[in-house]
């Protein structure tokens, strides 16, 4: 699920300007909560405090606490909590929750620490472009037999097919907002979301015909991302419903895994089909043993923020993730332990690329990772061609 992604400008001070004083605003006065709102706010703060005692991804929960204080315009507390996240990869510079304090000395000191902790990292090269800049693609997949890429549009209700040189044509139209997209054999599986229905749709790659549709009617759902087991079972995330759904091979009915997955988004399976990895709020990444159905958070270094994971991919003993939103947009590789249940170390492969303008999801092709740099999901006009970047994983 793509989230707001903001461009960054590095700050360079010329020697002659170093002596020029910079004036910053003071923190605004905190708001006075009404008798109705005050107990609701205190209850929410207590809920997040409780979550912090057991959440695996404490960095993200700490940031949510800062946003909670900011939502009530309690600025000293909001800044105090925000400062705790300054060196963790988070970047609040375009978060509207902090708009009222962005010109203050307190916020600027936090942003200085953020910029120092998140310098640009770039190892990718431009692979090709999609001329249809207003496509607003949310997902991509690759057909290795015919060497073609597929992109699902969140805004135009369609799927396009592109060559590696950027020659594109429509593959399927008349859909809802297309999010997750995966290819297995000669089948393309897509997640389509309309006002009163979310559906998993199976297309024939050669003819474009619909081979199967598996839907849940009504509001309150958004099918987000999907993954396969080697046997052909499909697992998919339903983000607002906080669940993972399962379509067993050869069946026609989506069933729900009993364990809740709060804000479930990216999803991946281990090569043997035994483990299911799901990005969630609180735990960062949860791992489910599909045999026993036991679920636990993936252990990870305390300085690794696992918030706002959009795409999640298993790749040769590691998890690749694209993070956006209030995380400084980046591609991260997380090296897993032998039992695949903990992250032993991590590398930032791409961050603060000047092309980034809505970076979201990608696809592993051999030893390369292709991903979309500028989906431009917040733009209303003036779109640029969509840049597809290629990152060698060696």
Task: Give your account of this protein's structure.
The protein is mainly beta and 394 residues long. The chain folds into 2 domains: 22-117, no CATH class; 124-392, Neuraminidase (6 Propeller). It has 4 helices and 24 strands. The chain has helices at 37-54, 58-71, 75-83, 105-117; strands spanning 124-130, 137-143, 148-153, 159-163, 168-172, 177-184, 187-194, 197-204, 210-217, 223-228, 234-238, 243-247, 255-256, 267-269, 275-280, 284-289, 295-297, 309-315, 318-323, 330-336, 343-351, 360-365, 368-372, 386-392. The strands form 6 sheets. Strands 1-24-23-22 form a 4-stranded antiparallel β-sheet, with no helix packed on it. Strands 2-3-4-5 form a 4-stranded antiparallel β-sheet, with no helix packed on it. Strands 6-7-8-9 form a 4-stranded antiparallel β-sheet, with no helix packed on it. Mean pLDDT is 93; it is low at 1-21.
Short description:
The protein is mainly β.
Explain the layout of strands and helices.
Elements lengths: L36 H18 L3 H14 L3 H9 L21 H13 L6 E7 L6 E7 L4 E6 L5 E5 L4 E5 L4 E8 L2 E8 L2 E8 L5 E8 L5 E6 L5 E5 L4 E5 L7 E2 L10 E3 L5 E6 L3 E6 L5 E3 L11 E7 L2 E6 L6 E7 L6 E9 L8 E6 L2 E5 L13 E7 L2
Antiparallel strand pairs: 1-24, 2-3, 3-4, 4-5, 6-7, 7-8, 8-9, 10-11, 11-12, 12-13, 14-15, 15-16, 16-17, 18-19, 19-20, 20-21, 22-23, 23-24
Helix pairs in contact: 1-2, 2-3
Write the CATH homologous superfamily of the largest domain: TolB, C-terminal domain
Give the strand line-up of the largest sheet: 1-24-23-22
Q: In the CATH classification, which architecture of the largest domain applies? A: 6 Propeller
- Spatial extent as radius of gyration: 22 Å
* Total individual domains: 2
Share of helical residues: 10-25%
Instruction: Give the tally of β-strands.
Output: 24
Count of individual helical segments? 4
Which stretches are poorly predicted, pLDDT < 50 over at least 5 residues? 1-21
Distance between the termini: 27 Å
Which fold does the CATH topology of the largest domain refer to? Neuraminidase
Helix-and-strand structural type: mainly beta
Could you say which overall geometry the principal axes of the C-alpha atoms support? Answer: globular
Report the sheet-strand fraction.
35-45%
Assembly state = single chain
């Amino acid at each position: 699920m793509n989230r707001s992604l903001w461009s960054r400008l590095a700050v360079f001070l010329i020697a002659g300007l170093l002596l020029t004083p910079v004036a910053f605003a003071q923190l605004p006065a905190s708001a006075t909560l009404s008798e109705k709102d005050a107990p609701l706010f205190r209850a929410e703060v207590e809920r997040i405090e409780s979550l912090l005692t057991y959440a695996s991804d404490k960095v993200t929960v700490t940031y949510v606490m800062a946003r909670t204080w900011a939502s009530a315009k309690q600025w000293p507390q909001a800044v105090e909590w925000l400062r705790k996240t300054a060196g963790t990869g988070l970047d609040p510079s375009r978060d509207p929750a902090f708009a009222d304090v962005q010109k203050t000395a307190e916020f600027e000191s936090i942003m200085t620490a953020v910029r120092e902790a998140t310098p640009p990292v770039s190892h990718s090269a431009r692979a090709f472009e999609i001329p249809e800049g207003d496509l607003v693609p949310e997902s991509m997949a690759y057909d290795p037999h015919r060497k073609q890429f597929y992109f699902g549009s969140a805004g135009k209700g369609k799927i396009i097919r592109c060559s590696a040189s950027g020659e594109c044509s429509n593959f399927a139209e008349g859909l809802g907002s297309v999010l997750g997209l995966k290819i297995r054999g000669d089948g393309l599986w897509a997640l389509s979301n309309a006002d009163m229905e979310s559906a998993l749709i199976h297309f024939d790659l050669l003819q474009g015909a619909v081979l199967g549709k598996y839907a849940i009617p009504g509001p309150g759902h958004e099918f987000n991302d999907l993954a396969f087991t080697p046997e052909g079972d499909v697992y998919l995330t339903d983000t607002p419903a906080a669940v993972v759904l399962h379509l067993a091979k050869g069946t026609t009915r989506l069933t729900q895994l009993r364990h809740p997955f709060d804000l479930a988004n990216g999803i991946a399976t281990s090569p043997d089909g035994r483990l299911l990895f799901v990005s969630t709020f609180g735990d960062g990444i949860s791992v489910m043993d599909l045999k026993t159905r036991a679920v636990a958070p993936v252990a990870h270094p305390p300085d690794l923020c696992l918030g706002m994971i959009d795409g999640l991919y298993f790749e040769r003993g590691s998890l690749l993730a694209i993070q956006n939103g209030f995380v400084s947009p980046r591609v991260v590789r997380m090296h897993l332990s032998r039992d695949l249940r903990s992250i032993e170390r991590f590398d930032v492969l791409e961050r603060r690329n000047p092309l980034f303008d809505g970076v979201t999801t990608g696809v592993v092709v051999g030893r390369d990772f292709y991903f979309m740099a500028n989906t431009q999901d917040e733009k209303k006009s003036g779109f640029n061609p969509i840049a597809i970047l290629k990152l060698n994983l060696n």
